[in-house]
Amino acid sequence: MLMTDIFRTNSVMIGNNIRAAVDDGRADVIPIFLSDVPLLFDHRLLKLDVAMVTVSPPDRHGFCTLATNVDTAVSAVSSAARVIGKLRQRHFVAFFIYETSWPMFHLFT
Fold first, then answer.
1. Is there a domain that residue 103 lies in?
2. How many structural domains is the chain composed of?
3. Domain range for residue 58?
4. Which residues of the chain have pLDDT under 70?
5. What pTM value is reported for the model?
6. In a domain, 61, yes or no
7. Can you say whether the dihedral through the CA atoms of 101, 45, 9, 20 is positive or negative?
8. Which of 56, 78, 80, 89 is a Cys-bridge partner for 65, taking CB atoms 3.0 to 4.6 Å apart?
9. Residue 88: inside a domain, yes or no?
10. How far apart are CA 70 and CA 65, in angstroms?
11. What is the pLDDT of residues 63-93, one digit of tens each?
């Protein structure tokens, strides 16, 4: 079984990495302004099974930061069934999340 039989790409932006798949009908693109993407997540118009975001390592209180990636990430982690956080050592502080705020929050390096 191929991964294309299991997964289907549904993107809000088109780039070189998925252009061929869209042209071949193996992927979809939602035409939307970037500023409207959080509305898709907040109003559950686009169901997120997993949100994958980069975060800082947790501080001594268990808080991570999404750094400057708060354009869509806040809505994504708030509405996803699972959140996977990729640790980044150098982050600027812009928005804090508590690592146990979501039932399925996993950190990996």
1. yes
2. 1
3. 48-108
4. 1, 67-69, 89-109
5. 0.66
6. yes
7. negative
8. 56
9. yes
10. 9
11. 777 766 677 888 888 888 888 888 776 655 4
Task: Give exposure, 35-65, as e/b (b: 16+ Cβ within 10 Å).
Answer: eebbebbeeeebebeebebebbebeeeeebb
Is 6 part of a structural domain of the chain? no
The H or E element that residue 73 is part of is helix 73-79
Token duo for residue 73: 């990430």
Instruction: List the structure tokens of 42.
Output: 């907040």
Return the pLDDT at 29. 92
**DSSP codes joined into one string, 8-66:** -EEESS--TTTHHHHHTTSEEE----GGGHHHHHHTTSS--SEEEEEEPPP-TTSEEE-
In a 3-state reduction of DSSP, which class is residue 83? strand
